[in-house]
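User: Could you check the structure of this?
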Amino acid sequence: MLSIFRTNQLMASVILVIYALFLRFWTLVYVDEWEPQSAGILAKWVYDMVGTKGWLPDSLAILLVFVQAWMLNALVLRDRLGRDANLFSGVFFILICSALPPFLHLSPLHMANFFYILAVYELFSIYKKPSCTVNLFNTGLWMALGSFFYPSYIVLLLLAILAINTLRSLRIQDILIVLSGAFVPYLYLGVYYFWTNRFAKFLSEEFPIQFGWPVLSVPSPLMYYISMVFFVILCLIVLFSWSNFLMKHIIQVQKKINILFAGLFVALLGAFLVPVLTLDFLLFLAVPLGILISFNFTNMPRQMAEVVHLIGLISIFYLQYLSFHHFM
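Assistant: Sure, the predicted structure tokens are below.
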């Protein structure tokens, strides 16, 4: 199956729709007791329009995951991050975003990841660019909008600072531009709530962010342990491959790959910014992890990559079957 995506023709990403439907069709057939937690103000607005359960929000989740996979493929091809030009980043992004049953619904993190990718697009564009004010401002803007869907995404501002320091010399002006971009949507939203005499509600309810140890909410202990083991293994695989990813790449690409690794560590800090933590928080790792794990499969012998990918597909599909038939 992976051979279909061994191409640099971005239009072939359309096939990813079928791939996403295959991995996520359970939600279109069965309805389970899933409810979003720690959703931001814009996520709540979306839920008010489409609901949280049923074919409409779950279909929207499939569309979002597909569009984001296409965007990641475009990013990797534009910046030549992989050794070979292929569409594996989108494939494994969809695989990770469909790996666990809670991921199959319209999570606030699916919506926030759209703006995460836009922010990475802007960040990767500043390398050796004489004037990058617009890129930096847009980076802060997209990150702030992402936090309107899931508040923890505000921690990505730290990633922006690390990325600026990696891609160019860090200046206080650059940091202020990023923070200005992040401040603008909060300013407009705060003014709106103040004008409608709901500013206190905005601070306390509509933006559920807190500093501290969150309450863990999981569907079952077994699902929790399976999820942790799966993502720990994926993270260890890419971490042990770090030096291999950087080999035979120009400095520009090496720096951008290092930023993706920084994204893995920064995401962990986001766990301490929400009151309730659910398994779909692991979707915070999907953007950098989807790209990085695709490099492992690019570097594998073709037959081995096909076998490992097939085993992963069968395992995920079986896990979903057990979950939706209430065996877990």
